[in-house]
Specification:
The protein is an alpha/beta fold. It has eleven helices and six strands. About 50% of the residues lie in helices and about 10% in strands.
Length: about 230
Amino acid sequence: MEILALTVDLDDTLWPVMPALEQADRDLDAYLHQHHPDVARRWPIPAMRELRAQVAIERADLAHDFTTQRHITMQRAFAACGLDDVPLQALWDVYFTARNRVELYPDALPALERIARRYPVASLTNGNADLELVGIRAHFAFHICARDTGVAKPDKRIFHAAADLLNVSPQNILHVGDDAELDVVGARAAGLRTAWINRERALWPQALGTAPDLDLPDLAALAAWLEA
């Protein structure tokens, strides 16, 4: 295959996302206890997570926009306490700062540096990670996220939006990601080549059809394959 550019997923491809999300919940809870104790008592972390999940179900039209879903969650939490004045920006700043305090996999940054020296790379994510806050923006030519695009993986349109920005035909783009369905199946349906970052060395789910072009244990293996 002739690869001229790459698109790379972020969460659980470059870093494990759950530790950051859990810390973000704790930081937000601490902020509420300090500044809005009534809300904190009414909405401890498990209850806030349930509310967030309920918002996601009710607002399926915002499946591409985790940020707005979380804003709605906070508005509902305050409203349930009889409060209409929601300090949304302050709450979001607390959450978003912690959400982007991620710890990259040991192989991720060295591999990304090697790859970006040879190819244009675009990040392609359903999440709301901020490359500037994470500290890796310099390694990416473009950042494509579901919120800005209006559709989320595995929708073909988000992959095609990346191809348009990169000015490269889909068949010459290698999409790299950890999620078998969102990344591999979605990218393949959009005409891209696929690299599954399969850190657990799981078997490819046969129900998802054709296996990815590359099944790799980490990003170091990807960088080595591209260099070879």
